[in-house]
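Question:
When you can, review this sequence-structure pair and walk me through the tokens.
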Amino acid sequence: MAKNDTASLTPEQANDVKNSDAYSFQGTKFPLPDGFTVAREDLPDWRLAHFAVILPVFPDALTSMDVTEWTPGRFRGIKSIEVPVWDAEAAAYRRATDIPRHLLDKAAYHYTPRVFLKGAHSRFRSPLDESVGAKAVDAVGGASECSPKHTRHKTSVRARRLLFRPDITPENGKTPPEDPRQKTRPGAEFVLVDDPEVLAAVGGSTRNLERFQGRALHNPHARISLACVEHLQYTGPGLRRIGTEDTEDTGDTENTTFQNNFLVFHVVAEHCSSAALEAISKSLFRSRNRVPLLPEYTPNPTHITEVRKENLLSLLLARFGETIGNTSLAFGNGGGLRWAQEKDGLTAGNPYTTITAIPAREGLELPQRMQQRGEQDLGPWTVHDAWAWFLATRADLFQPELTALDQHSLDASRVQLFRDWTVHSDENGLAVVRRAPIENANNFFWIHTGTRLVDLAILVRRADKYLAQMAKQLRAMTFGSTEIDQLRLKDEWSDDDIQKASSTLRRSLRNFEALQTELVVFRDHLWYESVSGRPVDTAVLRHMLLATGTRDNFDEIVSELELRKDIYATQADSIQVALDTVRRQKAQEKEEREKEQERQERRREAEEQERREALNINIAIAGLALAVPGLIDLWPRAEDSHTEFWVSLVVVLAIGAVLASRLRRQGVIGRKD
């Protein structure tokens, strides 16, 4: 394909951020409405605010969702924002294209500044690009899922988006290929009733809003729109299965699945007052907060037909559900998503929001809750710092506590100050506020905040959840102390006791080794304290880690493992010494028993041998006694002589006496049984 030749691009190629021929198409546009004309005093405070609301969702909640209309990859961000130009002849702000060329200081395109997307694969170096799933995020090769092949930890990322307005758009006279997924969907844009009295009434929970019907719209161009909903799925790295005290020691080291699923709602507010921006911010954080909307969207409304109090979170979730089918999802009081099939009504987690706010005029006022009677003393703060703090903390009427406008609080909240932007971070969000109306320069943040900084925010959320799981494992791990203590109370240990203690020690050591391995895997895949070559991203990432408490959680886990390593080493040594002592005692007792048995056996054998020898002698004596008469009979003798008889008798009696004496000495006779 020839360079910059886009005529033959397929929808997948145009959607591929890595495709250099399609880079200019990436991103959505926010032009001014046709015929835009606003008097100087009626120019809204804010030109545009982009909220990327990151909502954890239960992994099984959207498994049956039809994904045919979903586009691979993440939202491409905001590419261009058109700003009005002062027309002296008309005494109004108008579109540059509606003003004669000779009345413009610059060419018309200067009033529609553009910013081109930096993909995850080019913004993040390895291995961070793999951790955020750059191939899936950027839809490289048309893929919506990626899984690194050189790791054994079974990690994968899937990224898809449902568009309510196209984010692959024409540029430089070139048009991207037709893609039925890239379309403007009805029901995703709302007319905001940006009237001070109406906003105050809705914020004050006034029920009677009928009195505002028929009133002329104070700001007919105020709009809220849903640009995109992303479904992001992150799998791995796995967590080891930690055995408990009552679990048989099988040596199983199989990993359990570690999943993080998110819905990201990209909401854009245009041409709104400061009071309206406050209301929108509150309504995108807590379900108790409402904004006033017209019942139906019309391009050019003039009067209030009816005021409807709506919570934006619930309203946008309902529009999303109408598009994809029933999701059984709802918002809890804390702003997190509940799923009807999940027991106990638990939410999947608290939301986190990245916000870009761009003023349309100079001289902004402080958020209403931060205003004080009398002269406003901001100290080292600027009004834009105050707005960034307000948006990042997701403040409303009740929380958080207002910060003191001093240097200490500024240092704690502000990430970094730029010439045209100020960046603040909090546990609940990140806010990037432009310090002056848009110019055709230094506009990188309005596309970066809703894309790559969302990647970093999700990475921090994944890391925090992994650390939370490790903390649970640490709390559940007792190192077998209960079993060992019970065994130690016994006076004597049986062979089964020794086997049980040895198995407990072996299982506990394996569990602790698994936890140490998890920490290594975690640091390889989810823990980053800097973004290589990106000082701005590094500053944001580090502040996110601090503000969300993830940095502290990590330090606690590391220190806890170090502490437990020493304690468990001492316990293991103590247990091993006890086991060795018992084994040694058992071995000594066994050796003594064997020696005693051997001695008894030798004694029995000696006695038996002695008995056999004595018996042989006795038999020999008896045989001799029996042989004497025969020998005597052979002696020569006189006829009728009795001498041989008496000699034989005397010899036999003598031998018998000797034999009886021997038998008596040997205990054969005269022994009492």
